[in-house]
Amino acid sequence: MTGKLVLVRHGQTFSNVDKILDTALPGASLTERGHDQARRFGESITGAAPSILVSSVALRAVQTAEHIAAATGVTPYQREGLHEAQAGELEGLSDEAAHKQFTEIYGRWHSGDLDARVLGGDSGRSVLDRYVPVLDDLRAEFLTELDSPDVVVVSHGAAIRLVAAVLAGVDGEFAADNHLDNTETVELLPIAGGGWSCVRWGTFVPPFEGKGSRTADNPIS
After folding, report:
1. Cis (ω within 30 of 0) for the bond into 149?
2. Domain presence at residue 188
3. Residue 220 maps to a domain
4. Which residues make beta-bridge pairs with 117?
5. Pairing status of strand 52-55 against strand 76-78
6. Residue 220 has what pLDDT?
7. Half-sphere exposure of 83 (CA within 13 A, CB side)
8. C-alpha angle 23-28-33 in degrees, rounded to nearest 5
9. Tell me: the pLDDT tens digits for 75-100?
C-alpha cells in the first residue's frame, strides 16, 4: 500500500476568532492557540515523517507547516494553487448575512453547481482547476511506490472539503455540512486507475453518508 495524501487545515487564526471571511493572500496569522495546535499536530506524526511537506502560500498555512517541519525535520515547501476559496465581495466581512451568502454558494458547489460564485470570488470549478493539478503532481512524484511515506499538505477548510469530496466521491451533503476544526485532516488513499478513496474526514471514517452535523456551518478557514 502506498502512503496517504493528508490534507491538513491550518491552525487557528485571528480572523477565525473574529469570524472574519479572510481569504485574500497573505491573510491573517496564527493565534497563540493556533501555533500550539500546529506544534501538537507536528508532534503527533513524528513517528511517521512525511515524504514531503507542502503548504499553500497563505501566511496561516506557512506558519502551520513551519511547526510541522520543526517537529518532523521535513523541509516545508510552498505551492501556488492551494489557497482558500476566494470570497470576493464578501472578503473581510463578519456579519451573519455575509456568512450565510457564502455558505449558500458553497452548498451549491457540493450539490453539483460548480459554476456558482460570489461576485469577484472563486467558483467551485476555479478552485478545482488550480488545486487538483498540484495534488496530481504530488501523487505522481511521491505516492507511486509501495510503503511510500505520506504526503502532507497544509491548506484551508473550504478548499480541502470541496476537493476531497469531488476526488473521492464523498457525499456532497456530508461534505457541505461537516467542517474541519483547525489542524484536523482529510486523508485520501490513492487507488488503482488514478482515483482516490477517503479514509478519514476529521473525526469520521467511512462510510460518511448519514454522519455528522447535517447543519450548515461557515466553511471559510
Report:
1. no
2. yes
3. no
4. 123
5. parallel
6. 60
7. 18
8. 120
9. 999 999 999 999 999 999 999 999 99
Beta-carbon count within 10 A of 139 CB? 17
Distance, CA of 49 to CA of 124 (rounded, Å): 32
Cβ atoms 189, 155 nearer than 8 A: no
**Cβ count within 10 A of residue 200:** 18
Encoded amino acid at 44, one letter = S
pTM above 0.90, yes or no: yes
* Domains in the chain, number: 1
Helix (H), strand (E) counts: the chain: 7, 6
| Distant-in-sequence, close-in-space partners of 207: CB < 8 Å, separation ≥ 6 | none
Domain coverage including residue 96: 5-201
Instruction: Give residue 211's pLDDT band: very low, low, confident or very high (50, 70, 90).
Output: low
Report the CATH number at residue 31.
3.40.50.1240
* Residue 43, CA distances (Å) to 31, 37, 141, 188 in order: 18, 10, 25, 21
Q: How confident is the model at residue 219 (pLDDT cuts 50, 70, 90)?
A: low
Chain Cα centroid distance, residue 70: 21
In a domain, 212, yes or no: no
